[in-house]
């Protein structure tokens, strides 16, 4: 019988699998917290690299005689390369294993980072920086898939909260430390070499300390079955495309394109300088409360979502995610549409916006994981994090930049940070109907696989 099945239909398999000690109950996956710590280190590199060109560019520009337009090209290509690279790394992980793929992303990214430090002109820098981005971007979707297999559904919100919270917190320290190199002659080269070395160090941590739990390890229907990875059908282009036939997945991708809050990170400081007339140095003060708020939103949000899951099973996290969009819109309205003379007031608003933005990962990652079969999560997260997020980033950054010149950043913020986020919340209402059904479909497929395995065992 064919093993090519839609991820939303039961699978008939001919694989041999036998139950081991235990029963169909959620179990703690061994080494899950160690895995989370190691994966945090890998993704910190990705997060730090994303802002590296901005941090080091002033000294790069002086050394290589570049202009601001070069920075735009450098940043844009570093982002856009994620669209093909993310799914490609997810495909490779399915062929050689996720642990080996993570080692490859970090080692290759580190090599290109070091090579970028030796660049003699802009073309060389552009090529090596883009290749470094293409390599490092593979770590995020693979890491999210491993986290989903390390923690059961009830714990994924907390895990995602800690994961993204500490990534933001650690990155906020690494960036300024690397910037210290700019005080040296050719200091930007040392900065690039440092990033390359951190990449390789992260790869070594994966090599020696990451224990891939295996696909489906956290699912109660599969956890006590030996050979569980042989129960799933082979992943093909057709099964990956079938992800878009999952209503919840499609709604989440649309929501990603409506995530106007991405703009506050890109244009927030420019708004405070151009529209509110603070100096660059004073405006940058809001970055600290924003980062702390983001950490509070991710770490605390995971605990809140777990509580809502118990009160409103399968719908609590939808209400939580909607609430995060509305909260951001309300805070952004008061933060950007009124003029305040004190940077401290803006710091409070930026902390609240950081909290609302940070509240998203503990909900949207578990929602995606819950409606996608385990063997397709690599590809699902690659589409979510490297394709649709990148498209959203490009649309908002380029579109807002063009409109800001004629309408002003404050008006652009009204439409993107306030109105669009409220539209996003309305779109997410669709999840109340489709999300519980899609979760049930996945549970039924996994239960079918379990019963087949028990009969054949």
Structure commentary:
Keywords: Membrane, Transmembrane, Transmembrane helix, Transport. It is a multi-pass membrane protein. It is found in: Cell membrane. There is one protein chain. The chain has 457 residues and is mainly alpha-helical. The protein has 2 domains: 184 residues, Up-down Bundle (Growth Hormone, Chain: A), CATH 1.20.1250; 220 residues, Up-down Bundle (Growth Hormone, Chain: A), CATH 1.20.1250. It has a two-stranded antiparallel ribbon.
Brief sketch in words of this structure:
With 457 residues, the protein is mainly alpha-helical.
- Number of extended strands: 2
Shape: globular
Tell me the name of the CATH homologous superfamily of the largest domain: MFS general substrate transporter like domains
In the CATH hierarchy, the architecture of the largest domain is Up-down Bundle
CATH topology of the largest domain: Growth Hormone, Chain: A
Placed side by side, the strands forming the largest sheet appear as: 1-2
For the largest beta-sheet, the strand count, sense and barrel status come to: 2 strands, antiparallel
CATH class of the largest domain: Mainly Alpha
Give the ordered list of helices and strands: EHHHHHHHHEHHHHHHHHHHH
Return the domain count. 2
Number of separate helices? 19
Approximately what portion of the residues adopt beta-strand conformation? Answer: under 5%
What is the SS-derived class? mainly alpha
Mean pLDDT reading: 84
Helix residue percentage: over 70%
Distance between the termini: 19 Å
What radius of gyration results from the CA coordinates? 22 Å
- Unreliable segments of 5+ consecutive residues: 1-24
């Amino acid at each position: 019988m064919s093993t090519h099945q839609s991820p939303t239909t039961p699978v008939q398999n001919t694989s041999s699998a036998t139950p081991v000690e235990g029963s169909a109950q959620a179990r703690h996956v061994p080494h899950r917290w160690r895995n989370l710590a190691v994966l945090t280190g890998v993704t910190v590199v990705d997060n730090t690299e994303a802002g590296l060109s901005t941090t080091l560019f002033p000294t790069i520009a002086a050394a290589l005689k570049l202009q601001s337009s070069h920075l735009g090209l450098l940043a844009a290509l570093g982002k856009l390369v994620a669209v093909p690279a993310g799914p490609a790394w997810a495909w490779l992980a399915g062929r050689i294993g996720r642990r080996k793929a993570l080692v490859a992303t970090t080692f290759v990214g580190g090599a290109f980072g070091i090579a970028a430090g030796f660049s003699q002109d802009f073309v060389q820098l552009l090529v090596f920086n883009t290749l470094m981005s293409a390599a490092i971007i593979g770590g995020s979707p693979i890491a999210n898939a491993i986290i989903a297999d390390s923690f059961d559904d009830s714990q994924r919100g907390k895990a995602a909260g800690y994961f993204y919270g500490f990534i933001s917190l650690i990155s906020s320290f690494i960036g300024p430390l690397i910037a210290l190199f700019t005080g040296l002659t050719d200091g930007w080269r040392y900065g690039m070499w440092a990033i390359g070395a951190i990449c390789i160090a992260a790869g070594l941590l994966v090599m020696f300390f990451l224990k891939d739990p295996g696909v489906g390890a956290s699912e109660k229907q599969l956890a006590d079955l030996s050979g569980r990875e042989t129960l799933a059908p082979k992943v093909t282009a057709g099964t990956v495309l079938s992800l878009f036939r999952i209503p919840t997945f499609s709604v989440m991708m649309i929501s990603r394109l409506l995530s106007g809050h991405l703009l506050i990170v890109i244009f927030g400081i420019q708004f405070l300088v151009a529209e509110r007339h603070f100096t660059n140095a004073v405006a940058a003060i809001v970055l600290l409360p924003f980062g702390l708020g983001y950490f509070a939103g991710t770490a605390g949000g995971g605990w809140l979502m777990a509580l809502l899951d118990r009160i409103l099973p399968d719908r609590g996290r939808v209400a939580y995610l909607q609430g995060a969009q509305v909260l951001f819109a309300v805070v952004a309205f008061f933060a950007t549409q009124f003029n305040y003379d004190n940077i401290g007031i803006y710091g409070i608003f930026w902390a609240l916006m950081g909290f609302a933005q940070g509240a998203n990962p503990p909900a949207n990652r578990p929602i995606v994981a819950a409606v996608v079969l385990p063997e397709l999560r690599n590809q699902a997260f690659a589409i979510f994090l490297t394709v649709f997020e990148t498209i959203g980033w490009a649309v908002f950054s380029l579109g807002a930049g063009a409109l800001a010149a004629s309408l002003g950043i404050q008006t652009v913020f009204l439409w993107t940070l306030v109105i669009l986020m409220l539209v996003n919340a309305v779109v997410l209402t669709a999840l109340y109907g489709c999300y519980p059904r899609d979760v049930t479909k996945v549970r039924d497929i996994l239960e079918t696989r379990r019963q087949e395995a028990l009969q054949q065992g």
